[in-house]
Amino acid sequence: MGMRKKYESGAATNYISRRQALTKLQLNLRDFRRLCIIKGIHPHEPRHKKKVNKGSNVQRTWYFAKDIQFLAHEPLINKFREFKVFLKRLHRAKVEGDQDEVNRVSKTRPLLKYDRIVKESDSSGSILDFMISPQCFLDRYPTFMDAIRDLEDALCLCFLFAKLKKKSRIPSRIPHMCRRLTVEFMHFVIETKALRKVFVSIKGVYYQAEIMGQTTTWITPHERAIEENSDVDMSVMVTFADFYITFMGFVNFRLYKDAGLFYPPKLGRVNMLTAKEHEADKEASQELIFSLSEELGRDSSTAAAQEPAMDEFPEEESGMDTDVIADYKRVRSVQKLFAGLKFFLSREVPRESLTFVIRACGGLVSWDSSVEYGSSYPESDETITHQIVDRPNQLTSFINRSYVQPQWVYDCVNAGLLLPVQSYFLGVELPPHLSPFAEEKEGDYIPRVKVKLLQLQGKDVGGLLIEDMPKSVDSTGVALQGSSSNIIDEPKAKRRRKRAPALAATPGAPAKQTREEAIVEKAEQRKLQEIMIPKKYRRVYKKIKYGQKRKAIENRTLLRKRQALEQG
Length: 568
What we know:
4-stranded parallel sheet; ribonucleoprotein complex binding; 3-stranded antiparallel sheet; PES; 45% helix; BRCT_dom; alpha/beta; Pescadillo homolog; single chain; BRCT_dom_sf
């Protein structure tokens, strides 16, 4: 038996460089990137780079050899090669100046299909025609829940491309398709009341919804035109967008069918129109769907069951965990938060974002008909309860409605209740817009606005208040707790009386421990405990204590700043 050669087994054979992968697949770098994006293959960082690189220190991009072997059997590779042949034939026809040949070759352009289930679109190109029981990309998503878990990236990219301008580097169909698919998804969230949280930041507006039991968070740009950035490789972004368009088409179709809705979406009141009237009013119906102001029609003939309603569990009889009951109550309150309220949006507020949030929480919304198509009632409607205005003052006002700023809508959704409108009147300095994604723990610094909000929600904030930071902190930066905390909180006069010697000594009475002695004893006990920590856990313990110390310093700094602002 001969001696085993070096770098012929183990990590050296588990990875393959990008150059080797291109040679193996016979693809250029652009097509290789497209194939990896479509199939979900990404590079990996080897644990032992020198072993994988056969002793060399040259920086390379590495992939799993099994992933490249998996890509070698992909039918899309043949499509890439057919497209290269098509480009050569088209270029030859253009050089020869034969326009008939150019037209004939252009009709043979190979189409890349990212799935094997989607049929060709109809002549109008309005919607993809899906076969019965579609399954989303069996290679990447074996089950539909796997596709739902990967929905966040698709939503973020589609919402971004829906706001981009039509440029030469972006095909004109991509922004239009992204816009249509995102509107369809927002309609699904509205109809199922799946919205849970919303936060307005500098980057954009964050939304969080619960889709089939999975928490999905995505970000949408603000309502303004986005300029194209030359630093971004748009060819890679377009490949992602092209794949996610097909992905979102599958997901929207399945979600609509499970919810008992028509796909493509139809307006609820269109069923009363005749087929001829509907065909004549097709463009107007599409504009109403894009406005998000109308309810969608439900498909009574579909076999898919609608999303079941949440069961009612009496708190005293359910025997469930209190946290589960609290989450259930919050979801129910958010779903019916704006039920029975009518809103009117002024022309200066973000119309689409507010319409989406208000309707997802059960409210009715409208705007001036001169601003956008789809308004359902005028500003003079006396049944309007709230008008959203983002200007210092309102020229015309009605006494039977409240004029609030847009932040009131978002804060109400995050709080799960209708907040007092006095803090959101026109011209009033708004309270801080707190992030609903931050969870406070005991010992964290919590702003006063957050404390008041928790009190309005009926939560116990006794363990979260940090009014005065303790002055006595041990070496880890954490306030000493236990018996010494009671001594620290006592007044000085009372402690002097405790330390004063008694006039009549009682035989056998133990001496009372002073505050300083308690602190020293506590520190000594902790040092002894730290000495007994095994060596392999000592580093982790030091990291934990360092984090606690840094956190305590940050809390004291924030508290000191708040006290300085309050005093002057």
